[in-house]
Design goal:
The complex is a heterodimer of chains A (456) and B (393). Chain A is built from 13 helices and 19 strands. Chain A is an alpha+beta fold. The longest helix of chain A is centred in the last third of the chain and has 21 residues, at 388-408. Chain B has 3 domains: 9-110, no CATH class; 126-258, Glutathione S-transferase Yfyf (Class Pi), Chain A, domain 2; 259-383, Rossmann fold (3-Layer(aba) Sandwich). In chain B, α3 (46-58) crosses α6 (93-106). Classes of the chains: A alpha+beta (456), B alpha/beta (393). Chain A binds chain B through residues 17-18, 20, 22-25, 27-29, 31, 33, 44, 46, 72-74, 90, 92-93, 114-117, 119-121, 123-124, 137-139, 319, 321-322, 324-325, 328-331, 384-386, and chain B through 12, 14-21, 23-24, 27-30, 39-43, 48, 51-52, 54-55, 58, 60-61, 64, 66-67, 70, 85-86, 89.
Chain lengths: 456, 393
């Protein structure tokens, strides 16, 4: 079928105004805000219902056209830029907040609901509840974030945001619609089991298994008060132990680390940022005291920071996109890796070394995940979008980082194509075999974001 | 920046990260960019536009009618100015879009409907975007017994002079009652519509003509009842190199000043619930939010209520940036959303200080049977009895 017929059929499904093969739209969807090179797109489509998604997938499957689902498009690793051309399905018209269950604390939403939208909705309608929010702009979608093992607010206490998924509605390449989780058995989207759990297959598979149309995610009680206890550490080797001890106390809602060489006075230090919550100032003061003591014992010290700094960290969502403007260049790669706690000192060393090699000011950090079971360690490689050499420099730094991460035992997060290849090279052969078998079973025509997680 | 479109905007445009803050209200509860809310493709966000413009600069893409259409489907309301988080960049977003529109014009891609603006304005019979016979305002001068020379010039603006004449007349009556020493000039369009749509070739000539007329009248102060003219005279004329020494006032400035000085006292009531619509050209573009509110609050009997989105966060009326002429139906849809928001306040009156907002809100009010009274602040004042003492303006 030729392009004219395909666009006509897409228009019939979603309406003329929400399907496009206009060159200006294709240009915008052929790139993302990261350092990835652009790749051509043939069509962009914005469905409004699960039924429309089903019809589009049936069309793509029939015509064997690659299809790539897109949320906020903010992974910075090119995951929503098609590798083998085809259709980008922008999910953001599917933006209904369907149900909030206050007692069982979950929200059922369509896949295009943004983090900003849900945050505002809960603030206005369910002020006692808080959602998991990534360190990303408010235009990031809740589903997109959870489906890449995103982390952010509440990750230290409750795990990565993928683990907070209770249920999914997913359309498979053949156009069939499936409910996964408790919703397959019950009217309540409250849990992943107790039945065989297929949800994990759709997390970090980058749209290669199917297209998520609805998602239920856990909500959490919003504390009355929240504060931050900042610490300063000069010896990274002491950090894993200190952090582990903090998680033992159950004091911290979230724990972040920050390392950056600019301004000069910050060089050589790791900033420990511990979010504490409480019902009263007294409770916060008591928790602060305990943390100060723990900092001292770990040869670190408590740091009083001005309110404006504290407010930066208390803002939801945090203004992480500011990193793109450090060099007034409009771009940064947010290289992340999931690591066990003990690798934090090595990651600091790796990040510093690679940054300096590539003449980028070392800027790193970490978020604790799941009470210390893991950390998402990130290195920010800022670049100037107007300088292709500088963008390549960031890509090279990213490549070296992924390699180094895998060598020490970490796993690159939301890995771009090269990173995925490196992970697959190191992956247990039987895991790879299973991945290939599952992909072939679900997507025999190979239309789902092909090129990603491609097992040869 | 628009003074010379070749200037530094091309050097900073790549700073847009396309993070998307520009689309939202302050609290992220809704999209506040009319264009993104309508079209939903990323292309139609400010970020999308900036990336298209950057692609044109680098030569990665070439001008097309499609790109021009994206650039022109923007009310230039300035929501992006308020929500973009990059300092010394966010201030220029509307300027960049306008400068890119000027490039579109140069490259022959100005959409047909918007071309009518320049054709009418440059027509020596008209000099206004409405295609009306130009009024040199001599009849009004006679009617209101105005001198040839005065301390103030009332710059009426095309919308008030050719469409919202009640607003014009209310202003004239107020200035007379206030004993303001003012006159009118043979004014040509201030050029707001053509600057906003990038049709800037003859703008300097128009500015020079108007400045010469104002100077010839011996005026030290220029007052206008139009938010669009106010922005254009105060900001754009200077950017286009105008050299003038007179001060620019919006009528609301004068009313507020008289109230503050105790020289104006209202002697009758306006017993209605009113909600104020911030015109983008006065609000986000000129950062004037409190002055009109102060005036409304001092009108006896009035109950002023706020819409959910107000001040920096206000939803646009949909008329600006060439959208009313280029996309008339969509323009009214935008106004309808504003009226629905006004409806939620319980107000029976939606009021503003801009004849262009008044026009679009009135049009939507009529078409969608919204049953509001749409009225300018100066028209409300015109309905009241008031006393003015000791004015030496």
């Amino acid at each position: 079928m030729n392009a004219i017929n395909i666009i006509k059929e897409l228009e019939e499904i979603v309406g003329k105004e929400f399907a496009s093969n206009r060159s200006e739209d294709l240009y915008i969807y052929s790139q993302d805000p990261g350092a990835s090179l652009s790749r051509p797109v043939d069509f962009v489509v914005m469905p409004n219902t699960s039924k429309e998604v089903q019809k589009i997938l049936k069309l793509a499957n029939r015509e064997k056209i690659p299809i790539v689902p897109m949320g906020g498009g903010l992974t910075l690793s090119g995951l929503v830029i098609p590798v083998k051309r085809g259709i980008v399905m922008d999910m953001k018209r599917m933006n209904k907040i369907i149900e909030v269950n206050e007692l069982s604390r979950f929200v059922l939403i369509e896949a295009g609901v943004t983090t900003g939208q849900l945050l505002a909705y809960l603030n206005n309608n369910h002020p006692d509840l808080q959602p998991p929010i990534p360190d990303a702009p408010p235009s990031a979608t809740i589903a997109g974030n959870a489906l890449i093992h995103g982390s952010g607010y509440l990750s230290q206490k409750f795990g990565d945001h993928g683990s907070m998924i209770n249920g999914l509605e997913v359309v498979l390449p053949n156009g069939e619609l499936y409910k996964l989780g408790s919703c397959a058995v019950s009217d309540y989207w409250f849990a992943r089991g107790p039945i065989p759990d297929f949800i994990g297959m759709f997390i970090s598979s980058f749209g290669t298994m199917g297209i998520i149309t609805k998602l239920s995610i856990k909500l959490f009680p919003k504390p009355k008060l929240r504060n931050i206890v900042f610490g300063l550490n000069k010896d990274p080797t002491l950090l894993p132990e200190l952090i582990s001890k903090i998680t033992f106390t159950d004091l911290a809602e979230d724990i972040l680390l920050g390392i950056q060489d600019k301004p000069d006075w910050m060089k050589g230090y790791t900033f420990i940022i511990v979010y504490i919550t409480g019902e009263s100032e007294e409770e916060l003061n008591s928790k602060t005291k305990i943390l100060k003591k723990m900092y001292r014992k770990a040869k670190s010290r408590y740091m009083k920071v001005p309110n404006r700094i504290e407010n930066i960290f208390l803002e939801k969502p945090q203004f992480a996109a500011g990193a793109a403007d450090f060099r007034k260049g409009g771009g940064f790669e947010y290289v992340g890796a999931f690591i066990p706690l003990q690798l934090i000192p090595e990651m600091i060393e790796i990040g510093t070394k690679i940054s300096i090699k590539h003449e980028i000011v070392p800027t790193m950090g970490a978020r604790l995940i799941g009470q210390g079971h893991a950390a998402m360690f990130f290195i920010s490689y800022s670049f100037n979008r107007s300088d292709p050499k500088d963008m390549k420099n960031a890509r090279d730094a990213l490549h070296e980082t992924n390699k180094a991460v895998l060598e020490i035992g970490g796993i690159p997060w939301k890995a771009e194509l090269d990173g995925q290849k490196m992970i697959l090279e190191k992956m247990d052969p039987n895991y790879k075999k299973l991945l290939k078998q599952i992909k072939n079973l679900l997507d025999p025509n190979g239309i789902m974001n092909p090129g990603n997680w491609e097992v040869k | 920046m628009t003074a010379n479109p070749e200037q530094d905007w091309k050097d900073i445009i790549h700073r847009c990260f396309r993070c998307g803050y520009c689309k939202f209200t302050y609290d992220y509860s809704d999209f506040n960019c009319p264009s993104y809310k309508k079209y939903r493709f990323e292309t139609y966000s400010t970020g999308g536009r900036l990336w298209l413009i950057y692609g044109l600069i680098t030569g990665e893409i070439s001008w097309s009618q499609g790109i021009a259409n994206v650039l022109y489907a923007c009310t230039t309301c300035g929501n992006c100015l308020e929500n973009c988080r990059f300092d010394k960049f966010n201030d220029f977003l509307v300027d960049i879009i306008e400068a890119a529109r000027a490039e579109a014009v140069k490259n022959g891609f100005c959409p047909e409907k918007q071309k009518a603006l320049i054709e009418r304005i440059e027509n020596p019979e008209m000099y206004n975007p409405y295609g009306e016979q130009n009024s040199n305002n001599e009849d009004l001068k006679k009617e209101y017994d105005l001198p040839d020379k005065a301390k103030w010039v009332y710059f009426i603006g095309c919308t008030s002079n050719y469409r919202q004449t009640n607003l014009r007349d209310a202003t004239l009556r107020f200035l007379k009652k206030a004993n303001i020493d003012f006159t009118l000039i043979n004014e040509h369009c201030c050029c707001s519509p053509v600057i906003r749509t990038g049709q800037i070739e003859s703008v300097k000539d128009f500015i020079n003509f108007n400045v010469a007329q104002i100077n010839a009248a011996g005026a030290l102060k220029v007052i206008t009842s139009c938010a669009g003219c106010y922005r254009t005279l105060k900001k754009d004329w200077l950017k286009f190199g105008a050299d003038y020494e007179f001060q620019i006032y919006h009528t609301v400035d004068l009313v507020n000043e008289l109230l503050d000085e105790g020289k104006l006292t209202f002697q009758s009531e306006y017993k209605k619930t009113v909600t104020y619509h911030d015109p983008c050209h006065l609000g986000r573009h000129m950062e004037i939010y409190d002055v009109p509110r102060e005036v409304y609050k001092q009108i006896p009997g009035i109950k002023l209520v706020e819409m959910k989105r107000n001040r920096e966060n206000a939803w646009c009326c949909g008329a600006g940036g060439g959208v009313k002429i280029g996309y008339p139906e969509w323009s009214l849809e935008i106004s309808k959303e504003r009226l629905e928001e006004a409806n939620a306040t319980g107000a029976s009156v939606i009021s503003s200080v801009c004849p262009f907002c008044r026009t679009n809100l009135s049009d939507a009010n009529d078409i969608f049977d919204m049953n509001f009274e749409v009225i300018d602040l100066i028209e409300i004042i015109d309905k009241l009895d008031f006393e003015i003492v000791d004015t030496k303006h």
